[in-house]
């Protein structure tokens, strides 16, 4: 009896829910899924406020979802063909974008003809949001890689930040070994068994783990071998220390046991909370791999972009919203930068006054214009559809090499694992 | 006599050692909840002064009270419903057992053995078709009847004295009456243990609420905690505080019910 | 002497009959629960099985027959993850259940002081979210962490162990983590089960001169057998499907040496280019393995 009642009760509730939804149609509501309240969500809220002035009939409804959770929900809904619950706009990790567009064709809205000026964004970033020549996302946060260093430690060893600018890895190792000897501090830390630093180095050469046809290119990947050699040398000379997880990684430079770090520009958010170190930090570009043709001092790590879902009831409205805000509002980028440190890949923002503000934590260095400049120089690579598979196989190979396996045999193994996974 | 004393002392020694191992990480966690993120990563074991600040950040940056209430609501509904349905079935399987029911029990046990990740998509489709997305019923239904609880009650019923059943029948109680009037009170210990476990599992349930509850206002504590670690920078003090608080409801329930499943039941039918 | 207790025990378990009418009534007790399980577990399982016959990635699925099952034989990651979960199973389940049984036995002693405190302390780890406990655990087991410091101060070893760095130490860490978290959980069922044993049986045994060990093996374990079977099946099943621990503590590393099957399924579905059909096939193999193991456990442990 009771069960029937409950079912009835929920049916009534549902009907009520649907009717209120239809009455609310007067106003358009655009729902957005993204993560990180201090960063993406904050930026989205500000964008909503700006758009609210232009188009008061449109409501922006933001839901906080962690990236992994977002991917789980997205994959579940799309593979179950139950898209009613999906939002209009999602934030997408650049590393997963091609994978999702390829796996779920027709799930994402093509923004190529939406009027958004993609030329205004850093090239490498636009490249990452394109699949088969179509633009699927509005580039957002800047993952341009920085080399952040403690100049007080460098000074102790007789170096300045200029000595680490526009250099090669050979020079970095030479000077880094010297700093280590004189101050006892390594310049870098990395998580054992994770390939983030190698990925940063890889992109700085303009190469990736796949060839033009998308086939795995690991066993005979010369840049990769050179990178592994450099990585090993960094470890041997104790310029790089390995720790076991992300929290320990953050702790190494927060506690000052390590005098620098290389990562996407967003790592600044974890550097600045340590007040005692204010004024001691500077940023510069990365060392380049001198032995690899086309190698640069610039790279990228992480970053995400806004996508419009094809199942959206009003995809044009969602696209217009993105166009007027993240796609073309210098004002938005000026508002969000100071309080969130969310650095854009929208190049015109680099000219603005806010971006030219000196940052006291970094000894009044104009870090934001600097980072925008780096972004413009990052080599374009195509992460490909099987990027996560590649990342995991490379990580495994590196772990094996570090525990003594011969480089070529480990890479051969990685090559065949990746070939299997793509089969 | 001395030997016995030694035996007793070693018992306490063992218990203290085990309790220390159990509590130390939790002690660390509660200390961390009172510190700033930078200090937490530094590995401090000294309580700090940041508890209030962490709590303010937690309650202002997240929909904390809402998430606590949601988790509580879902967990409470699930627990009540599943104790009733599952114990009824477990009792039936044991007390009225025959070949058919033994067979059915074995078949039901198979349901434990498939990873949830695999049935998630079909289940989601099914619930979508039933129109149960974003509802408390949708949240609770898959866990109302679990082979685990049914099996637990079936196994426990094995120690339920059958003289009680015979005597009750002679007294004119109906079969369902025996279940409600005799079985439930006598099996308090099993019910208490099952309630704690079910509540805890529902409270910590992660994947299913993640996909079935799509509205921000329906967020549960595990999802809130997941969101706390999702940004470029994580505030570890706030994270530890959130996890510390999310243990409390289960802990309170445990403390309230533990007498029932651990102290023996006086006045039972023995 | 002692045999008289055993006799009493047997007599207590025997001696009632179920007639036809009651058997019929019994079905009404079990049907609601069974129906729910059929609709929310077996129906999706059948759908998942059909899915496991589908090849391809993402939404581009097509019928592939047994191709996914054939693929398993060539999949080194699958084999590795299967090996890993069996390592956990063999090492962890016996240790944990024995420990839980011993603890329940000690804590069931009515004369013990601070029982409530000990019980709560041992139970509380399983209520903790793994997200934070993983951070603490990794930090405790870091190279310069708490555990190495203690071990070195006790002169148990000369060099710190890189717990998360080596394949076997990392697996051991998973086993430690599992035991830490789930011993108290299992202990509860034993404690609850012990309350249903008539204390008079113990009294009689004591009078008969049975030792503590005798009481454990001749009364406690046989009386708890149904519950021990339950926890064994649950733990076997839980360990073979372990996900949280490997994801949060080691993320499958180093070099996949702690990767579990469930984590592999998760990667196949949500991290890698999604192969839902193949992921379902992987799951089905686990399903069959667990089902066979449980079948044997039932055979050994479920006779009345």
TrEMBL record, chain A:
Superkingdom field: Bacteria
The entry's keywords: Signal
Pfam family membership, one: SBP_bac_8
Signal peptide: 1-24
PANTHER family linked: ARABINOSE-BINDING PROTEIN-RELATED, SUGAR BINDING SECRETED PROTEIN
Protein name as annotated: Carbohydrate ABC transporter substrate-binding protein (CUT1 family)
Species whose genome carries this gene: Halanaerobium saccharolyticum
From TrEMBL, chain B:
A Pfam family per the record: BPD_transp_1
Compartments where found: Cell membrane
Domain ABC transmembrane type-1: 68-257
One GO CC term, this protein: plasma membrane
CDD domains referenced in this protein's UniProt entry, alphabetically: TM_PBP2
Keywords: Cell membrane, Membrane, Transmembrane, Transmembrane helix, Transport
Superkingdom classification of source: Bacteria
GO terms for biological process, alphabetical: transmembrane transport
UniProt membrane topology term: Multi-pass membrane protein
Entry's transmembrane regions: 12-31, 74-95, 107-127, 133-153, 236-257
Family, similarity comment: Belongs to the binding-protein-dependent transport system permease family.
Name the record gives this protein: Lactose/L-arabinose transport system permease protein
Species whose genome carries this gene: Halanaerobium saccharolyticum
TrEMBL record, chain C:
A Pfam family reported for this protein in Swiss-Prot or TrEMBL: BPD_transp_1
Example GO biological process: transmembrane transport
Record domain ABC transmembrane type-1: where: 78-297
Superkingdom in the source lineage: Bacteria
Keywords assigned: Cell membrane, Membrane, Transmembrane, Transmembrane helix, Transport
SUPFAM superfamilies xrefs: MetI-like
Family: Belongs to the binding-protein-dependent transport system permease family.
Protein name listed in UniProt: Lactose/L-arabinose transport system permease protein
Organism name: Halanaerobium saccharolyticum
